[in-house]
Amino acid sequence: MVRLVTYSLSHLNLSPHSHRIQPRFSESLFHCLKFIFLALVLILPLSSCKPIPEAPLRIASNTWPGYEPLYLARTLGYYQNSQVNLVEMTSASEVIHALRNHTIEGAALTLDEVLTVMEDGYQLKVILVMDFSNGGDVLLSKPEISSLTQLKGKNIAVEYTAVGAILLNGALDAAELSARDVNIIACSFDEHQACYTQADAVVTFEPNRTNILALGANQLFDSSQIPGRIIDVLAVHSDALDSHPKALEQLIKGYFQAIDYFKQKPQAAAELMKARLQLTPREILHSYQGLHLPSLAENLDLLRGETSKLEEIASELSIFMHERRLLSRKVSVKALASDRFTLEVNP
């Protein structure tokens, strides 16, 4: 039997010394690999052409009427089928912390808060001017204090921010007083009402303003007396302009759509806003009397140019903050503003 097998193998020429079948195997393998290679060449370009979807665009803010058009846009469905994700936070400090940690791409902040973040080396771009405070920021006093001059020697609660400093500085200038003539008490936004009960006066804004006035407070000074000094903006990390262009475009378009809705149907808009702001529709509409919401045309005027008007305002604010030790150094605001996304909005 062994000899038979050996004989058969020898006739088939499959002995260890035979190489006739090896070339056939190598040629077959070569054709197989060639086919796989050609398939990959054809398939890979097709798969690489498929666009990579943008990650969610996270935009944060605390509660403030000037920021509310963003949330109105969300309620009205203007951000459906988009990557826009609005993140609601309790205070500006929390928002700034998230911006520093890159857990959000952008935020609605006052311009001085933007400069505070940039002081630490973060690269930010302002892509929207949301409001100018025109009476929305106020100095409220106890009922027995009816004039600014009566504040001499009194305790005034204020946030340790440029907005608080600007408002208080304006009020003291109007009374021909200085910071040395009063006792300044640090007070965060979420404690304004409590601070009012413990101090003689408080620097605050909506919605706290309405609630404190209901306690019998007197309004001694407001931001309409220092026009153009307090500004709220939408700022994003610089790299977000290229990583989230579509979502940012939708964000800005939806914002201006909401502004149009508010102008055309103010009562209906206020009804939609009341739950978040925790104010009545009447109080909401009254609060907007203390704000100027720049139009699309105004935004383009503020943001465009090699040295934009917004950058000029920011430069002056940086000097003011540095002089009052709210910044350790003057912050460069060169190329801070970008009109890239406002230009995409149809008037």
CA-CA gap between termini: 96 Å
* Number of H/I helices: 14
Strand order of the largest sheet: 2-1-3-10-4-11
Give the name of the CATH architecture of the largest domain.
3-Layer(aba) Sandwich
Organism: Shewanella psychropiezotolerans
Protein name: Nitrate ABC transporter
Subcellular location: Periplasm
Family: Belongs to the bacterial solute-binding protein SsuA/TauA family.
Commentary on this structure:
This is Nitrate ABC transporter. It holds the Pfam family NMT1_2. Its main location: periplasm. α3 crosses α10 and α11 packs across α12. The protein has 347 residues and is an alpha/beta fold. The N terminus is likely disordered. 45% of the residues lie in helices and 16% in strands. It is globular, with a radius of gyration of 32 Å. The protein starts with a helix and ends in a 24-residue tail after the last helix. Strands 2-1-3-10-4-11 form a six-stranded mixed β-sheet, sandwiched between helices. 40% of the residues are buried. The chain folds into two domains: 171 residues, Periplasmic binding protein-like II (D-Maltodextrin-Binding Protein, domain 2), CATH 3.40.190.10; 89 residues, Periplasmic binding protein-like II (D-Maltodextrin-Binding Protein, domain 2, 3-Layer(aba) Sandwich), CATH 3.40.190.10.
Concise synopsis of the structure shown:
It is found in: Periplasm. The protein has 347 residues and is of the alpha/beta class.
Produce the secondary structure layout.
Blueprint: H1 2-12, H2 21-48, E1 57-61, H3 68-75, E2 84-88, H4 92-100, E3 106-110, H5 111-118, E4 124-133, E5 137-141, E6 155-158, H6 162-174, E7 183-186, H7 192-198, E8 201-205, H8 208-213, E9 218-222, E10 231-237, H9 240-243, H10 245-264, H11 266-277, H12 281-287, E11 291-292, H13 296-303, H14 309-323
Helix pairs in contact: 3-10, 3-11, 10-11, 11-12
